[in-house]
Amino acid sequence: REMEEKVTLLNGPNKRPRSSTMNEAPIAVVTSRTSEVYVWGGGKSTPQKLDAIKSGCSARQVCAGNTHFAVVTVEKELYTWVNMQGGTKLHGQLGHGDRASYRQPKHVEKLQGKAIRQVSCGDDFTVCITDEGQVYAFGSDYYGCIGIDKAYGSEVLEPLQLDFFLTNPVEQVSCGDN
């Protein structure tokens, strides 16, 4: 009930949610008129405005995984960062080529030049699609959840394109737990 009241508070006349997502972990909300990103959870019960995305960029879509957040900007760039309070091992779900815990949004450089349309976060992995319907995935593939045969059971630290969708463009992606 308390969380519902806080969401209602954010939904004032000048702040209507455009895109939001919720997992068991923290939640993120994008507002339509101002494209601001608010995050809460992970020990913070009050929505906090996030100012750390590159200056001049506006959020278009957000997603919250169990251990991380992802934002697609209006400029169609992807940013990721951790949402946990520490103690959780990262498996490459941020897509930066390492297992570092970036606590502020960081541009996923490997996708530079790709027009990212949508992102979805699983427990320890991330999947995004481009305007052309191509699919990129990264993070834990311990259960085969990112769909890359050569990566099954391993960690993918940078975005890899799923070849299957080269001839089968994708419209939307949604990830679950594992």
From TrEMBL:
PROSITE patterns: RCC1_3. Residues 1-21 are annotated as: Disordered. It is found in: Cytoplasm. Keywords: ATP-binding, Cytoplasm, Kinase, Magnesium, Metal-binding, Nucleotide-binding, Phosphoprotein, Serine/threonine-protein kinase, Transferase. One of its GO terms (cellular component) is centrosome. SUPFAM superfamilies: RCC1/BLIP-II. It is an enzyme of class 2 (transferase). Its EC number is 2.7.11.1. GO terms for molecular function: ATP binding; metal ion binding; protein kinase binding; protein serine/threonine kinase activity. InterPro entries: RCC1/BLIP-II (IPR009091), Reg_chr_condens (IPR000408), STK_NEK (IPR051997). Belongs to the protein kinase superfamily. NEK Ser/Thr protein kinase family. NIMA subfamily. This is non-specific serine/threonine protein kinase. It comes from Ceyx cyanopectus (Indigo-banded kingfisher). The lineage of its organism: Eukaryota, Metazoa, Chordata, Craniata, Vertebrata.
